[in-house]
Amino acid sequence: MSADARTPSLEALLAQRAVATPFFDREADRIAELCRRCAERFLRGGRLVALGRSPQARSDARHVAVEFVHPVIVGKRALPALALCAEGGPLDRQARLALAPDDVVIAFEAGDRETAAALAVAAERGCETVAFAAVPATTAFAPPGEDRVRQEIAETLYHVVWELVHVVLEHRGTTAAGGGASSFLYPFLSNDMRDDLDAVLADIARSVRRKAREVEQLRVATVEGGAEALHTAADVLRERLDGGGRVLALGNGGSATDAMDVVADLRDAGRAALDLTEDTSIITAIANDVGVEAVFLRQVIAHGRDGDALLAFSTSGGSPNVIAALAEARRRGVHTVAFAGYDGGPIAAGQLADEVIVTPSQHIPRIQEAQATAYHALVDLIGASA
Known about the structure:
This protein is of the alpha/beta class. It contains 15 helices and ten strands.
């Protein structure tokens, strides 16, 4: 059976995402209010604690934590955040050891029994609880659609929460305009709103709705603009996987969590895949003894074989350690596929990967959200193992 006959079309995959904008239209006011409550908890010394037990939920928990601790907007404060995941043991036990009353606990796949138990511990401690399922929580969201669509909606939601928490924090302080250092993201926050939090939150809610439409358009631009590359990459990767090859995946920061997620999806489909961001002992050993630029290169040397494939994620399209890994992979006969933002950066300009899927944006959270749709589409196009 041909691949096209056993996998959905890219048009059908994009149509599934059309539920996202109505969801954000409905939930924008609750999202703005959640940001206010989260900011107040941070001001009292609370932390964001993310729960993720399955491999996919783990990627989201790690992703939201890195956004708060290491914000991509230069000059933003680092906010305390951590992820509690399956490798640390039962989530409820970890929660009992880690949680404090002023924390904000965000649960992915909250319908999972172990995650629900940890969420119950958070509620007992007096934490603010957020869930992406219709379960008991201070704020529960129920994104529509199938699993990957719900995951993409959740990613946009926690990115927006991260952005807006900073706006509320600065409004609570003594910064100049309502948005303070974030005002370039929110030009509608005028000086006369500085003392009117309700007005700020109302405009932030409108911003949530605009951002949802922005990412919907960007998903379409990424998938339609990269359609030929996605189909070609899927055909090559399917052939290599069917022939005994493996997919290696890598990226930095939020892009590392994309590597986690795509590997989890490929494994669920019965495909052999390695996450080169997973082993912190290997990464820190190479970074310490050789240098950060070699953290993926050395692993490609160790694992890359003729007949394998490499998926590389870079919002800038120019991360030196990603470029070094792509070059080494090509030398070893590894087929390379890159997901890049902006105009594709040096990776696209130098044709440093066999296929490059470009997300044409300069806003890193939106780039990552659209890239998620693109690599989910790639996994669907490859199909499950026979």
